[in-house]
């Protein structure tokens, strides 16, 4: 069972207001997490940032679109009034034992992100995904199979609706290492027994986000999913310890 710290464990009481900061990721690692989830945008001068929103307004003391500002300008912003926005390169360097699940949030990010991964030789330390089919296709074309990737929504639909994992794998071209999904999308339940079975038959993991409720965590464990993505790193660790599924990492 893989335990992912979503944005570093954004709702853990000790780091509320510090999502996607070096402090949040360090806190998750101090709890024993090795899988860290983050998002990436790129500045106007090509620096890849670990940041969720396309604007600074919600979580920092500055405003404006990330893509319209240089890294020198972005460096002045403070998350929660005190923490600098980290670059993806800084995080890979600061936490060499960590594995990063990276969500591409904006156009123009694929090549700069791949350059950062290559700089750190982090080919086996990252899993890259995107909600955008276009961005995912671009990244895969550039990466040429060197980086594992998760399913975009059209590929998720194939695994949810087609009758077999073998057929879903054929339709998706064998690109999918993991299906990273919510439990529901509107009225449709995505994480069913059949969905998990088809993913496993195709050799793919099922990772579910963002799960903060202990009862839902238990239910998903019973359904045989391979990973849970959470903002409440404290609750997920307790649940996995109780079920004998927590692995301590050095």
Account of the protein in words:
By secondary structure, this protein is an alpha/beta fold. The chain has helices spanning about 20-30, 70-75, 90-95, 110-120, 135-145, 155-160, 165-170, 195-200, 215-220, 235-240, and strands at about 1-5, 35-40, 50, 100-105, 125-130, 150, 175-180, 185, 190, 205-210, 225-230. The protein has one domain (about 1-150, about 210-240): Phosphatidylinositol (PI) phosphodiesterase (TIM Barrel, Alpha-Beta Barrel). It is built from 10 helices and 11 strands. Helix 7 (about 165-170) crosses helix 8. The two termini are about 15 Å apart.
Summary, kept brief:
The protein is an alpha/beta fold and 250 residues long. It has helices at 22-30, 71-74, 88-94, 110-119, 133-143, 153-161, 165-171, 193-201, 214-222, 233-242; strands spanning 2-6, 35-42, 48-50, 99-104, 126-129, 149-150, 176-181, 184-185, 188-189, 205-208, 227-230. α4 (110-119) links the parallel β4 and β5.
């Amino acid at each position: 069972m893989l335990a992912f710290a979503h944005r570093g464990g954004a709702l853990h009481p000790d780091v509320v207001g510090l999502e996607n900061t070096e402090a949040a990721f360090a806190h998750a690692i101090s709890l024993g997490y090795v899988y860290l989830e983050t998002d990436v945008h790129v500045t106007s001068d090509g620096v890849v940032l670990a940041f969720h929103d396309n604007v600074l307004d919600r979580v920092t003391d500055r405003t404006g679109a990330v893509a319209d500002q240089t890294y020198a300008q972005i460096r002045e912003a403070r998350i929660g009034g005190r923490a600098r926005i980290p670059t993806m390169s800084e995080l890979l360097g600061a936490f060499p034992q960590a594995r990063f699940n990276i969500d591409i949030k904006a156009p123009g990010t694929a090549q700069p992100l791949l350059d950062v991964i290559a700089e750190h030789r982090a080919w086996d330390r990252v899993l890259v995904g995107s909600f955008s089919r276009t961005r995912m296709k671009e990244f895969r074309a550039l990466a040429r199979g060197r980086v594992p990737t998760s399913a975009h929504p059209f590929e998720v639909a194939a695994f949810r609706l087609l009758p077999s994992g073998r057929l879903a794998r054929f339709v998706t071209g064998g690109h999918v290492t993991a299906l990273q999904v919510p439990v529901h999308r509107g009225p449709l339940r995505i994480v069913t027994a059949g969905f998990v079975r088809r993913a496993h038959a195709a050799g793919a993991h099922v990772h579910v986000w963002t799960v903060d409720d202990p009862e839902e965590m238990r239910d998903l464990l019973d359904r045989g999913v391979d990973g849970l993505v959470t903002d409440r790193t404290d609750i997920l660790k307790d649940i996995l310890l109780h079920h004998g599924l927590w692995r301590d990492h050095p």
